[in-house]
Amino acid sequence: MTAQEVRLCGLLLQEHFGDVVEKVGTHLIRRGVLTLRALAHETKLPLDLVKKSLCVLMQHGMCAFGAGRRGPAGPVEYHIICEHILHMNRYPRYIYTAKSLYGDTGELIVEEILQRGQMTMSSTVKTVADRLTHNMPEGQSMDYSEVVSAFSRLVETHFLQRCPPMASAGSSSSGAVNAPLPAVTQPTKPEDHPECYKLPYITGQGKRRRSSEDGEAEQRATKKAKTDNSERGGEGIYWQVTFQRFHLHFRDQAIISAVSCKLDQTSSEIVRTMLRMSEVKMPAHAAFTQALSANEIFRALPSSYNIARPILDQYLTLLVDDPMEFVGRTGDSGGGMYVVNLHPALANLARATLESVVQERFGSRSARIFRLLLRKRHLEQKQVEDFAMVPAKDMLYTLLSENLVELRPFSHMIINLVFSLCAYGGRLDSSENQVDETIFLLESYINSTQAPP
């Protein structure tokens, strides 16, 4: 990791968990892998505080442990998952997304789980119902079944998943110093944990009543009975937020927004429908969605749009022919088979983002040269001037000094565009990236947007 990333991780840990956890986490980031005793010795912190800090980090999926270099008989070693620490910077957006999709109940469910790292379903339902009831007018109460329903929808759409099962005994404890720790929250793929989206059967779906001063004891007894009832079927099953699923949702929203700006609202709704039909059925890093027939898309469109079938065919043809390559055609059965081209669409969006930044910072002539190099890949200086029809020497030097182009020796000295989003993306200030979708594209899809040299 770069020094800036380490510093950011330290600041996030300090803000959320305090100085002790920050010190333990930052030291693990810098040292890589350490045993518990080595970590306590090097940080000069009491062993008990180091244990508690590691438990906090593992509770939030930011630390993992396993057998050390000596094997299962040796001491357990710990390492930090830096990516999960950096996810804390997007917690507000995860919560807002849950609110926009599933209302206040979904918002509070995701907020509670993010704050605690992992929770059982029954505990989450109880806590959220209590919070919603507290904000309701006197005499009204929140029905447990509504919270359970929102929780179930979040799991069905894969925004929540079960925590991975406990590691084997040989790698989870070794001696009194390395006592058994909470459930391991190492990243896991759904195919490695087939029941990660299976909901337990939760009983006790009554209403959460508002407590009053004159009947406080009775209300506490009622609450306890309902809580005990709700625990049945969900004991020991902890749930966590699926960050990758939120990121895929951000990706889809960026594509939908781009289609709306480039074409119109109806086109974006067609693309939204295609993405929604494939969202939980395709691998996370798939280059395109599942192939869907025009008939399937037509049946899945919201009835409020009232799009006739011939109009839908025209829109699909328009999307296929668009140079941004949002939609591709793969076959003719069922009125035509269509996919959303995820990687080409993201590559084009990233290129358009860089073009707009170049135009804003260096002017329209530099942007013309930049677009020209994007299309041609490499040109001599004389060719650049001939194609762009502008004196290019000064502008090429400016782009070269900003690491947007580079010189490469071939048979002649040729100017070649370096599509290096990692190198340049970190230099964009907030005024140039006001929308987090753009930042997300530049960060998370670098591999799909880079072209070979």
UniProtKB/TrEMBL annotation:
Principal location: nucleus
Gene behind this protein: LOC107596706
Comp. bias regions, Basic and acidic residues: 211-231
Family assignment from sequence similarity: Belongs to the eukaryotic RPC3/POLR3C RNA polymerase subunit family.
GO annotation terms (biological process): DNA-templated transcription
Organism: Sinocyclocheilus grahami
Keyword Zinc in record: no
Span list, region Disordered: 169-231
Domain RNA polymerase III subunit RPC82-related helix-turn-helix: 8-66
Domain RNA polymerase III Rpc82 C -terminal: 150-349
GO cellular component assignments: RNA polymerase III complex
Keywords: DNA-directed RNA polymerase, Nucleus, Transcription
Domain DNA-directed RNA polymerase III subunit RPC3 winged-helix, chain residue ranges per copy: 354-407
SUBUNIT field: Component of the RNA polymerase III (Pol III) complex consisting of 17 subunits.
This protein's name: DNA-directed RNA polymerase III subunit RPC3
Pfam families registered for this protein in UniProt: HTH_9, RNA_pol_Rpc82, WHD_POLR3C
Sample GO molecular function, one term: single-stranded DNA binding
Localization, UniProt: Nucleus
InterPro entries linked: POLR3C_WHD, RNA_pol_III_RPC82-rel_HTH, RNA_pol_III_Rpc82_C, RPC3, WH-like_DNA-bd_sf
Task performed by this protein: DNA-dependent RNA polymerase catalyzes the transcription of DNA into RNA using the four ribonucleoside triphosphates as substrates. Specific core component of RNA polymerase III which synthesizes small RNAs, such as 5S rRNA and tRNAs.
Keyword Transcription among record annotations: yes
